[in-house]
Here is the input.
Amino acid sequence: MPGDPVLIALHEQSQAASAENLRSLRAAWGVDRSWPERYISFIHDAVRGDWGTSLRTGRAVADEFTARLPWSLAIGGGGLLVGALISVPLGYAAAYRPGRSADIITRGYVVFSQTLPAFVLAVALAWVVSANWRLIPVYTGIPTQRALLPVLLVAFYAAAPLTRVVRHAFLDAAAQPFMLTALAKGLSRAQALRRHAGPHALSTLLSALVPQMAWVIGGTAVAEIAFAIPGVSQLLVESVASRDHPVLSAYIMGAAAMMVTVQALASACRNRLDSRLVSCAA
Here is the structure.
């Protein structure tokens, strides 16, 4: 995006954008150096635990993140967990009788979630639940009350694609020869799906959590802005407006680290579910 953070800061402080002010502020912030120099300096400091200083607030970026991270982790992680838990019974119900009512309903749910923007649903939830019904003080309640609707919002959009992933995993397992053996032994289709296709569906679900986490990071930003949650994503939006490069760089590195962590945890859980994955990797 175009825009000089130094010019933006001087404008917000009602100071003249003279050559002397520009030069001194750029030197103080270290933005007078070239991009390669600043990048190498950022990586060097980040490895030592120094994430820099926010150009907008003057506070250490690490302190900004530490204060806001619990909100974002609760909303993003909680929403993804709830969405995954919801997707298992929905995917099972859709796979139990393909083409019947449960399958049609879940397909409609996926289409509806893809066509309805998250911020529209967020505003509607806040208006209905808080303003009309007065069930939850969305903007003024205790932390658990304020986080409830954002978590449900993220879970609603996370569960939709995961439900179809689980459905396809159940159907894929149902077409395997071992399912015929299970049915021949006297198990019903429902019992065979739960006992023999369940682990395969769960392993597939764990794999799907990794790319879904990428959406959750963006979905958390929508939830935090719509419900005025002081999380990391809200800090990101404010930093974009002021071109706060240290905060933006730290956010990108943090998001990448989170994706790597989710990938590692999902792989570890899949290895515990199916030891054959470990031997294949070896």
